[in-house]
Amino acid sequence: MYKNMWPIFLFIALSLILSGCYSEPLEANKVTDEHPVVKKESTIEEIRQELMNKYGGMIPLEWGEKVQGVKTYINTNEKIIALTFDACGGPNGIGYDDQLMDFLQEEQVPATLFINGRWIDANETIFRQLAINPLFEIENHGTLHQPLSVTGNDAYGIEGTLSIEEAINEVLLNQNKIAEITGKKPKFFRSGTAFYDEITVQIVEDLGGKAVNYNVLGDAGATYSKEQVKQALLQSTPGSIVLLHMNQPGSETGEGVMMAVPQLKKMGYRFVKLEEWNQLLL
């Protein structure tokens, strides 16, 4: 009965083969979840070459704090808040707000610390103490605190990385520094000024991290008054990621945090580290 049906079988087989070979073309700079993590044994030069081959010739279409691929909140209805503190380094950014950090320890408030390479160099003893404190997690705030760009875009008057190679260095050199000192590779990256293009977000992911920003601006670069900091934190919602600074002891950030935390606790919120909620970052 199958004698005269071979043309039909042939047609079906060809259809399946052709359908398996065809796929819709990806948008030029579309962020996907299929980023090949660079092999552990690769040298820095091999990593640079691999990623330059991958992204060379691409022109970024986006620039800002919320480009595609950047994580800004935790996708949950639980009343949790992730307090994140940047330490930016540089001539005016190597301070340490010990009163703020002592308060977090006294109140047992977990926090995620995004640390710049220049700050580590200026505060290595303090950095090592923070790194072994289970209340805190250490993450990557870049090597020179530059906006992350492949074309030299700037933000707030700070020139961004000029090329793919410079973007890789901004992420990778401090990532390696942190891993060497702490024995633990950072999971997350936040660029200087929190600005990216979508190509550099993919580069961060290829290097094994996630670009993380915020949905609550806690202190506006440590320029807010204590009342403004307090009010900003009280606007948090379940899953909020708050951006603050721990490197400006002369600012009112610490006082504002100290005012807000007890009220947030009374409202039923608890504080978490980002690493505990990695899979729910959006």
Sequence-ordered SSE layout with sheet pairings:
Elements: H1 6-21, H2 44-55, E1 80-87, H3 98-106, E2 111-115, H4 117-122, H5 124-131, E3 136-140, E4 154-155, E5 158-159, H6 164-182, E6 188-189, H7 198-206, E7 210-211, E8 216-217, H8 226-234, E9 240-245, H9 253-266, E10 270-271
Parallel strand pairs: 1-2, 1-9, 1-10, 2-3, 6-7, 8-9
Antiparallel strand pairs: 4-5
Helix pairs in contact: 2-6, 3-9, 8-9
How does the helix and strand content classify structurally?
Answer: alpha/beta
Q: What's the multimeric state?
A: single chain
The major β-sheet equals: 6 strands, parallel
Q: H/E element string?
A: HHEHEHHEEEHEHEEHEHE
Total domain count: 1
How many helices does DSSP assign? 9
Low-confidence stretches: 1-34
- The beta-strand count equals 10
CATH architecture: Alpha-Beta Barrel
In CATH, what is the class?
A: Alpha Beta
- Terminal residue distance: 57 Å
Mean pLDDT: 89
Would you identify the CATH H-level superfamily? Glycoside hydrolase/deacetylase
Radius of gyration: 22 Å
